[in-house]
Amino acid sequence: MSEILxxxxxxxxxxxxxxxxxxASFEELGDYHEFTGAGRIVDPKEETExxxxxxxxxxxxxGSQFRIDRARMILPTKREAVVHFLSGDxxxxxxxxxxxxxxxxxxxxxxxxxxxxxxxxxxxxxFPEKKIEIITDGIARFTGYNDNYLxxxxxxxxxxxxxxxxxxYEEDALKTITEDPFRPLYEIYGFGYKGALKLADAxxxxxxxxxxxxxxxxxxxxxxxxxxxxTYIPYPILQDRFKNVRPEAFEEALTNLITHEHLQSExxxxxxxxxxxxxxxxAQHLNDHVFEVETVDPEEIDEKISEVEFLLNIxxxxxxxxxxxxxxxxxxxxxxxxxxxxxTTTVKGILQIAKTMYPDAVIQLCAxxxxxxxxxxxxxxxxxxxxxxxxxxxxxxxxxxKNEKDPLDIDFLIVDEFSMVDTHLFASLLKALPPxxxxxxxxxxxxxxxxxxxxxxxxxxxxxxxxxxxxxxxxRQSKGSGIALLARDIRDEKKVDFGDGASFIExxxxxxxxxxxxxxxxxxxxxxxxxxxxxxxYKGRVGIDAINAAMQQLINPPAPHKKQMKxxxxxxxxxxxxxxxxxxxxxxxxxxxxxxISGIHDHVITVDFGTQIVDFTKDFLYYLTHAYCISVHKSxxxxxxxxxxxxxxxxxxxxxxxxxxxxVSRAKKQxxxxxxxxxxxxxxxxxxxxxxxxxxxxxxxxxxxxx
Length: 707
What we know:
This protein is α/β, with parallel strands linked by helices. About 40% of the residues lie in helices and about 20% in strands. The protein contains 27 helices and 28 strands. Helix 1 crosses helix 2, helix 12 packs across helix 27 and helix 19 crosses helix 27 (about 695-705). It is globular. The mean pLDDT is about 90.
């Protein structure tokens, strides 16, 4: 039950200046009861009185505390607080003696009296006019700041949106958005189009104001880029989306956006986000990383390869040896290959040899997702990081700490699962590399492209800027080798065969869920932990949402000893398998990481991600989703002992060669495809109808030509 407390903030225990989250010790004004409060407080000040709205909760780690939903500074009334307030930094030249005189003359409510009628200060004997102005201005600023906050609440903005505005514009937030409510859309990361419209409506911007059309075009370009994966929007296509708008108005609005550099334009191509600059950065930096390296005797490399073969009890084929030589002969190279073709074994050899040949060199491994990075680390026996972690990504402002001004201290960079890397992320990575750093990019060009705009891996392969080694021979001979063979058949568009770990379970749509539940119920707890269900679509009778609900009921049903918590229409329960949907670099967990709910206490869900344990309050539950079944895109970069993949007619429009290839290649030992086998065989022949539009190849070739 929400309640309101009037309390003085005694001292700050913890403060995150980025998101305004504060833990502090408070003292109630009425009965002097001391308590700990936690929540968002903008610019918290010790020895200041607050009106706090929220409720008492019990945190699983820190015990009883008051959860602050809203905090508003109030003018102090008690003698000691008034004197401290008036003699503080906000009132220069007003000392303790002057403050005491004001209180003794005007009494307990002196500050509120001054706020209502500043002329009351004339009652203070021998009080200079300059000091009257300082006190009047200071109180006006203090109360105005609080009034601004309440006004933003009235506008319908969330606590998060208000925090973003106040962090960006400080005391001028209300003035800034009153003058132009669309500024935050262009200037503040995380402040969206809907929030800007709320502000525009609140300050009564006319419906025909050109700024509304500019914001709509801006948002449309961003959405089209994310939905299509294009780095640019062809002008005729964008123009067609606004065919019901007066042409002159559309042209003027688009021109304004380009003039103010909210969008970039080049030969009837409109680039949203920073994609125009990102492509140029990639082209220039890639060219800079093509340089002569010290020559290494090929025979010496061959000797080192033989030593590694003996050490690891393996035998490299000629193509793998070629990849190892390419790494040491060039400043940058690409290793491309499907599942079971020996990419990891090749990288192990490269690392072993590099450590002996360059003992003082810093070799850094990384991957685009947390799960891919952990997998790379486990398979290679070397430390690996996510690209975001390596670049010291800041969640709050979406900026990387590592860049040209503060580059990484590394000599060799190896990036795995490179097909998942989008244009902006690769540009950011290249900017942070020192000029001497050598690069190895590892990927599978037949997998799905990145979620973000671009097709960087395939563009690099087509430009042939670096030496490329394609691994094709299947080495996986243990249980599950049929999975690698199936993936190769899909890639080569041959007739597919199911065998040795790969099976198809033919079922009509109405029987898929029933069959899936029967199959999963046959596994013990450890086997289920190594099992993953993958489906292409969220909605539908056998979509991800329906499968997750059914699996939760089967694997982790309600029980008296299990606590649970509702978020929207979904129940989260102790023991549930869940997946993170956002990057949380401060907690070292990332989008796609999977864990289990280890505890639920007083509106806080604790998730064990294996290497990290993270608490989620109700406000942050949208960061989590159940993970008994996940999408093909979310599974990319991970491998599972056993995979069940759903293929049924309702999802036919989403099924194509790349998606199904990616799905089946997630399995290591057992793959079960459930559904319509004829549909599967037909859709694996279907190439993507949409080829992503980028200018990266042209920019790379131009940079090479001008070098």
